[in-house]
Amino acid sequence: MKSLRRIRQAFWGLVFAALWRRVRDAGAVPPPAFSVLIRGGVIYDGMGGDPFEADVGLIGDRIAAIGDLSWMHGRTELDATGLAVAPGFINSLSWATESIIEDPTAESDLRQGVTLEVFGEGLSMGPLNTDMRRELRLRRGESRYPIDWHSLGEYLEFLEKRGVVPNVASLVGATTVRIHELGHANRAPTSAELVRMQSLVRTAMTEGALGVGSSLIYAPAAFAGHDELRALALAAAEYGGAYYSHLRSESRHLLPAVDELIDIARATRAHAEIWHFKAAGCDNWPLLAAAIDRIEAARAEGLDVGANVYPYLAGASGFDAAMPPWVQEGGHAQWLERLRDPTIREQVIKEIEVMQPEWESLYAAAGSAENVRLLGFRHAALQDYCGLTLADVAKKRGRTPAETIVDLVLEDDSRVHAAYFMMSEDNLRRLITLPWVGICSDEEALAPRGAFLQHSPHPRAYGAFARFLGHYVRDEGLLGLPEAIRRLTRLPASNLKLTDRGVLRAGAHADVVVFDPEQVRDLATYARPHQFAAGMKHVVINGQLALRDGVPTGARPGRFVRGPGAQRNLSGLNTSTSTTHITIA
Question: Which of 146, 268, 347, 578 fits a disulfide with 237 by CB distance 3.0 to 4.6 angstroms?
Fold first, then answer.
């Protein structure tokens, strides 16, 4: 195989050299060989091997040549001398579903090199029935946008037609499918309902979904039993789809939650991945070692099980994650109606204050109100609390922390966004060293302007990938840069069966980043989160420059990236530019 590759490289090298000599001898100015030519960079191809110095030539939306292209030129040329050239980064857990409508640049991620946003943690933007569309309109945040779609594929096509900077893709949400058929009820589906839920998954897969995603600590997702999840994952696996999960427990019941995911991997023989893998709460930190052992044993058995993390010690969620699921049954309106009932309110406050064995509480995992920081509200009257701890706000209001949680949810008519500090630095370092662990943001893609300034996001929205590369890879040396790049590129692409993304090779999609490994760093903090990361020089998406010299170009080259089950030859699909693909030694 290697000898054949060398023969091909030599052949194309001779062909292009001969063409160049003919043009030179004729005294003519040759036309550009490439639409974009990246010169002199250090190539990290995404596969984890040793880097090498080379040029990268792009034609249209594909990589056409990698090698010594000094005797050729392009319409646009980028000097990458002394810089790293790598595949575009994949955010395997993005919440940019609405923020990308408000601001299509997804700039906080663009400036970190993200070229593909993957949605679908439990909730996806389709399939939607009439009631779900009405609820989505009511629960929209700062963004006001038309909801003209019903299916997941239609939503992703809406983004592509509207024009967005990054590529977009999604799993179909197990919670979304459940709500479509059962609403917010706390019960198992009937046989007929489960058949319809599986049919919805199959339809989403043929539209281009990447698999099924679950988020099992939140109502109504928490009401889903193991058999229901396995049935949905099996439907996705028929089309090559993966199963991703926010586990049923990340604290006291972490080990049985990991076992549940492994069982689904065994039943489907598909890739199964833990979103934002962690052991939450200091009493539970020792459980991580046993959880890792179980995953390693499953992988040794031949199961395709993996995980991803965000490189921070605080998670972010809502105050719904501090309340029992039973009070949230029936949806948002019924949740708030129950909280207004004095008897129910008293019971909820008691369950917030005293750890309950039946459900997962992020407030309990944080350990105290000092470890909970308020991040976002719907109403301007509460915005001054952004950035303060729950303990600070409770003291200001003269209430207990549990009372304050309930009061703020009612006053804001929202779940209230908060950061929960609950992870161990040693555990995070251990996870980063594991070869089957990737990186995600678990956040929206934002920018320090407009409606986004009305709340204080988790700094991972601006810094997850830069923090991984700058702090944990360069400064702490937990990984070499080639392996770190693989975690951001080929690893997630392979898990999602995206064969021509996440790699630099002739014929692959032209998603390419150029950055300075010595300068890449996160600047966002919990106190000042709206700070772009540093170090990213150029970002090319589908062959078009989206970031040049650290500045967005205004191009919107993003596409709907379809998963393995998508029907081929659909009308209206973007087709790749026809090119001759060469690799030059």
Answer: 268
